[in-house]
Amino acid sequence: MNFPKHWAFADYDGASEGPFACWGWSDLSLEDAEAVARQRSQGVMTRVLGGDRPESYLYGNKPVREEVLEKFYNEEGTLEAAITLNSYGCQILNTAKLMFVDVDLEDESSAIANISSSVGNWFGLSQKNPREEKEKAALERLHDLISSNPHFGVRAYRTKAGLRYLFTHAEYAPAADATQQLMSLLDTDPLYQRLCLAQQSFRARLNPKPWRCGMKALRASYPYVNQIEQNRIRRWQSRHQEASEPFASCEFIHHDGTTSSPPALAKLIKLHDQHTRATSGL
Asked: What is the DSSP string of 24-69?
């Protein structure tokens, strides 16, 4: 897992087009983080002036710049998991060996098709729901995988935009070839897959997105500039927690395959289900 101790924002003013700025990170010192930031800024400048789009360089190939709220260690003192606060205010469970897989099922066209299906049902016209059809196909693909690997165990959850799979039978390394192959086989969101590689961990959102429970997103940039900013964020978190009470973040569907889990994973599975309220019926 990769949670740098130091972050710094610095620019590289090496072109007539103006300075290019990036975040840098380091476990050594703030000065080292600044040096990394300048180096990365120079790299972005080179790519932009060469005609590349900077998004591909800036996203998914660096650690996530988030505040660590809580850490979980094993008996040997190794960091096994951490809960972080992302930029729009949600708590994220980061795990070193408990694999989460996110599968997106909705896009703009499917959302429109879902509305059309609902309207058709109002008028007594039987139409297939595209979201339900995609979910059924995805779960069948998961079941086929488990049937071919009877030692596998997976908990499946329904999210707002798709499915979440939680592999319960064994530990996985985010960067391992076998892990990446499994993710690709199950049509994992490619951005999520890249993020797992950069962060050297798996990620799962624990509480509802603020705009889904009547709140505006938090606007926060870590590291925070001062104590006043941190106090503002803590007040926002308190309001978000209250607004989230009527909602779950995901819904448990079923457990497919073997139900046995290593003790370390079992604890994190329980933590995930408690925080997401996956079995609450909300």
From this structure: EEESS-HHHHHHHHHHHHHHHHHHHHTT--THHHHSSSS----EEE
Distance CA 81, CA 88 (A): 21
Asked whether the beta carbons of 22 and 58 are under 8 A apart, the reply is: yes
pTM for the complete prediction?
0.85
Which burial class, exposed, middle or buried, applies to 259 when counting CB atoms under 10 A from its CB (0-12, 13-18, 19+)? exposed
Total H helices, total E strands in the chain? 8, 10
User: Parallel, antiparallel, or unpaired for β 251-257 and 153-158?
Assistant: antiparallel
Could you give the C-alpha distances from 63 to 26, 111, 193, 199, in angstroms and in order? 10, 32, 13, 5
Percent of the chain whose predicted confidence (pLDDT) is above 90: 68
Q: SS3 string of 158-193? A: ECCCEEEEEECCCCCCCCCHHHHHHHHHCCCCHHHH
By the 8 A CB rule, do 97 and 172 touch?
yes
10-residue mean pLDDT series, the chain (282 residues): 90 69 92 93 81 55 87 90 95 96 76 49 67 94 96 97 96 93 92 85 95 94 94 97 97 96 94 97 96
Provide the β-strand partners of residue 202.
Answer: 95
Lookup: tokens for 56: 């591909």
pLDDT at 80: 92
